Amino acid sequence: MFFIFGLRSKDKIVGSRVGQCEVCGAVAAQTLVRRTTKFSLFFVPLFPVRPARHFVVCTNCGRSRYAAREELISA
C-alpha cells in the first residue's frame, strides 16, 4: 500500500493599485496576492499547514515583496 501526499501552494489575487515599485522605481500597477499552502493527500487539499501570506507583485518588473500591514488594511 502506498500514499501520495505533499504540499500545494495556491495564489489568489486580492486587489491591485497604482504605485511606485520599490525595486525598479517605475510607477505601475501593484497586485496584492494571497498565498495559502495546504497539505494534500491523493491530490486533494485537506488543511492549511501555515498561515496565509500576502505579497505585492509589480506588473512592470515582476518582482514580489511581503505586503505591509497598512497595505492589507487598505486593500
TrEMBL record:
Q: Give residue ranges for domain Zinc-ribbon.
A: 20-63
Question: Could you tell me which InterPro entries the record lists for this protein?
Answer: Zinc_ribbon_15 (IPR031493)
Q: Which domain of life is it from?
A: Bacteria
Q: What is this protein called?
A: Zinc-ribbon 15 domain-containing protein
What is the source species? Paractinoplanes abujensis
